[in-house]
Design a protein that fits this description.
Number of domains: 1
Helix content: 55-70%
Distance between the termini: 38 Å
Mean pLDDT: 91
Order of helices and strands: HHEEH
Strand content: under 5%
Strand order of the largest sheet: 1-2
Radius of gyration: 18 Å
Largest sheet: 2 strands, antiparallel
């Protein structure tokens, strides 16, 4: 399986998990996209350093070919999937823990619920 195929599967899985499985609905929130815009800037810087100096090298047969900041465009897909998966699970586990809080304890109120 190529890096491109894995990156696309990662994005598809993250979207499905966010919207339908975990139901965190991050992708429907403006704050997610604003935050992701900040993250992507730093991802491009890190990718540029790692691939530009040859620290990370990609097999040309496993990627599409176009690059952004020296890294294959698939890295943007992979980064998006990784951030979305991580945040979706973080929110899901936080909600689950609040539901399990013992009686008499203070629960944090999440404005997004």
């Amino acid at each position: 399986m190529s890096y491109t195929e894995l990156a696309v599967l990662g994005v598809a899985g993250a979207v499905i998990a966010d919207l339908w499985v975990l139901r965190t609905r991050l992708l429907t929130r403006r704050i997610f996209w604003v935050s992701y815009a900040i993250i992507i800037v730093f991802q491009l810087i890190a990718n540029g350093v790692l691939t530009g100096f040859g620290i990370v090298v990609y097999n040309r047969e496993a990627i599409l070919g176009p690059r952004l900041a020296y890294a294959p465009v698939e890295d943007l897909l992979f980064g998006f999937a990784m951030v979305t998966w991580t945040l979706s699970w973080w929110i899901w586990w936080g909600r689950r823990d609040r539901r399990r809080a013992p009686p008499g304890t203070t629960r944090h109120v999440d404005e997004t619920e």
